[in-house]
Specification:
Structural class: alpha/beta
Number of strands: 6
Distance between the termini: 60 Å
CATH topology: Trna Endonuclease, Chain: A, domain 1
Helix content: 25-40%
Number of domains: 1
């Protein structure tokens, strides 16, 4: 039987990611064919536009397989895929840790641009 907190956990996590990252949430939490992700950047002209599918758990660990990542990449289409992961500490949904999985190439590009920006500010 599914834990009734599962829906509440997922919704709280998705809401937090959308607010923090400026994403637009998808209707139905990404369970519809026309909007399969949990949220996405919608503004045009943003170089780093991400689409995400969040995962959350009360357990001590979570398994993320290649199929999960491949599905996220397909659903993201022209957006960069992001997989936010939230671990909850207890049944009262206290957040223990928020993590995110990105493609290493996306992270490297972000890092290089951040360093270039810092160099411009320092010159």
């Amino acid at each position: 039987m599914r834990d009734p907190r599962t829906t509440e956990m997922g919704q709280a996590h998705e809401r937090h990611v959308c607010e923090l990252m400026g994403f637009r949430p998808s209707p139905g939490s990404g369970n519809q064919d026309r909007a399969p992700l949990d949220g996405r950047h919608t503004a045009e002209g943003i170089h780093y536009r991400f689409g995400f599918d969040g995962k959350s758990t009360l357990r001590q660990s979570m398994s993320i397989g290649r199929d999960t990542w491949r599905k996220l990449c397909e659903q993201a289409h022209d957006l960069r895929p992001m997989l936010p992961i939230r671990f909850y500490d207890s049944g009262n949904l206290t957040v223990a840790q928020d993590l995110v999985v990105l493609d290493l190439n996306d992270l490297a590009e972000l890092w290089q641009d951040a360093e270039a920006y810092q160099d411009l500010r320092n010159s």
